[in-house]
Each structure stands twice: as C-alpha cells, then as structure tokens.
Amino acid sequence: MTSCLVRSRLGDYPVLIESGLSEDLPSLLAGMGWSGRLALVTNPVVHELHGERIVRSLSSSGYRPETLLLPDGEAHKVLSSVTALLDGLLSLRWERGEPLLVLGGGVTGDMGGFAASLLLRGVPLVHIPSTVVAQVDSSIGGKTGVDHPMGKNLLGSFYPPRAVWIDPDLLVTLPLRERRAGLGEVIKYAMIGNAALSDLLDSGIEALGGEPFRRELWSLAISESVSEKARIVSEDEHEGGLRMTLNFGHTFGHALEGALGFGEILHGEAVGLGMLAASRVSERLGLSSGVSERLLALLKASGLPYQWPRNVSIDDLLRFWGSDKKTRGGKATLILPVSWGKVIMTRDYDQETVRKALLDL
Ligand SMILES: NC(=O)c1ccc[n+]([C@@H]2O[C@H](COP(=O)([O-])OP(=O)(O)OC[C@H]3O[C@@H](n4cnc5c(N)ncnc54)[C@H](O)[C@@H]3O)[C@@H](O)[C@H]2O)c1
Ligand SMILES: [Zn+2]
Question: CA 225 from chain center: how many Å?
C-alpha cells in the first residue's frame, strides 16, 4: 500500500493506493470510526461493474449501505442532478455524522463532493475514484462542482474529503480509450516535475496505453501522479501560484475541446495535444528545445492522438483560447516548459509567435 497526506486548511486527509483496496472497505471504514449507515453515491454503469459487489461486502460486515445513483455523463453534471441527490438523502433523514462514499469518475466525484458539502452544511466525504482522471486528479484537491449553461465548473465549492481510497484494479473495466486519455494527465505530472514518473513512462508507456491492463505498472503510475498532485495542492490549495502549473496543457487543450465541440475529443486527449502546442510555443520563443520531440514520442507510443485535428481552424482555436476563464486582462498566462520536468508561467509572449507555432503543429 502506498499512501500520502494532503494538507488542507479545512483538515488534512490521507490518500491510500492499493490494488484490491475496494475489497477491504469495511476495515477502512472501521478505521475511520464509522459504523451503521452510509451512502454509496455512484452512477448506474459503475454500480453494476463495482458498486453491487461493494454494497454486498459492506452489508455482510454489518454496515447499512444506501445506494444513491447520479446520472452518467458530463451532460448531467448540472445543479439539478445534485439537487435530486440531496432530495434522496434528505428523504432518508440523513444525519450529520453519516458518511458519503462517492464511487466513480470525475463527473460523479465532482457532484457527490458538492452534495456532501451542501448537505447539513457538510457531511463526511470519501472519494473512491474509478477512472484514471479521477484517481490521479479530480479526487484530490477538494474542488467540487457542476457545469452551468454559461460554462464548465462554474458552480462549486472547496470541500476536502476525509480520505481518498484508490483501487487501481477498478480501472480493469475502463474502456481503453478512457484509460489512455488518463495518461494525458499522467504525462503532465512527469512534465511538470516528477522525475520518477518520467522514467516510468520512458520504459512503460506502451504497456500502460495497451491491453491487457497492467496492474503493477498502473499502480506505480497512479502513486507517482497522486504524490505529485498531493504535493502541489498541499502547498497551494487555492491556486495562488504553484497549483496553476497543474493547468499545463489545459489552456490550449480547453480551446481545442471548445473548437471541436465538447464531447468530440476526450479531455485527456486534448491535454496531450495542448501540452504539445505549449511545448512548440516554448521552442519558438527560444525558451526550450527538444521537449516537444520527447512528448511526441510518448504520445505516439501511448496510443493517444498526436496530430492536431485538421478540421480545427487556428482562428477558431485562438478565439476559444482568448475566452478561457484563466485569461486575465485580455492576455492569457501561458504555462510553458523550459525543460523536461520544469514549467514556467509567463505573459511575456506575442500572439504572432503563438499563431505560428499552432499553424506549424
Ligand atoms: N475536481 C477536480 O479537481 C477535477 C479535476 C479534473 C477533472 N474534473 C472533472 O472530472 C470530469 C471528468 O472525469 P472522468 O474523465 O473520470 O469522466 P467520467 O466521470 O464521465 O467517467 C468517464 C466514463 O467512464 C465510466 N466509468 C467510470 N469508472 C469506470 C470503470 N471503473 N469502468 C468502466 N467505466 C467506468 C463513467 O460512467 C463514464 O461513462 C469532468 O467533469 C472534469 O471537469 C474535476
Ligand atoms: Zn485535466
């Protein structure tokens, strides 16, 4: 088992990572001092694949699990889904000390976490993430929320969980494309500073991006990614500086998602291409050399897309890029690599160089 502690103003919490950990929930719950009733918040897909088994094991250990289902998919990551979940919990006369275990991907985690923060001004929350994105990213750091017609993640709260319990084995059932897309975020952690992860990717990227699912390799990749994210959010919980480096690849990535129409490309795929764009911009500005080549090799070997989609015009992209919510005063802060393993934030660039770098992709 690997574990790390995330520091938070609202209370530190442990992240545990172990293959098969979801078989062991009764003892983990007992370790937290919880008995009796608890809610398993998940979605129909994950419930069938993993939730039913978990409910059986909890029941047979004397717990009284209540299953509450959220709808599947980003389109349902809206306030009304959270309200419906809260209606369900209130009609069960939920009490303040009774925990919510949120099992699923980032969509379920963001909504379940938001509901936990609102219900009775906060009930105990445990994340049991079941996608790569959720295991290495969304379950850690305390951001919860939903989308709004005006934009993604516009409503939400900071609400750290009491614990994050990660079972890499849950990824066995994840479709290959989703698993690969998660590698986009894993590569990001290597590029912003985790050297052990860079080594692991150099030798293992093909196996990580392929079939069959490689349990030990994935456990390592997840532990290293988690330790990187935990380190960063512990130092900068509210995105004053360092936490912004987690957005590496995301400015161009979001613009690409927007220009293609949301849903056409998976987020992690867009982040991979976004990091490639940022690396090329950096090279054109003379800030680095060779980074984009190394990234390109990883993207190719992982099975992630590595070619900029031909049906996206650079003008569309620049328009979406300009409207990114991280833009301040009309000019976006760019997060650019200066070497493999080190990124900087800068507004010292000209649009024309960016345009040329993007045209060149
Ligand atoms: N809170 C944060 O800090 C943070 C960070 C990153 C991303 N996010 C959010 O996370 C969301 C994306 O998360 P995601 O990529 O996990 O998408 P997702 O939650 O939509 O999951 C992808 C699909 O996989 C299915 N699934 C989940 N676990 C599975 C399993 N083990 N086997 C088979 N299928 C499974 C889901 O039902 C879904 O259909 C976005 O809404 C994003 O805004 C939040
Ligand atoms: Zn991301």
Answer: 11
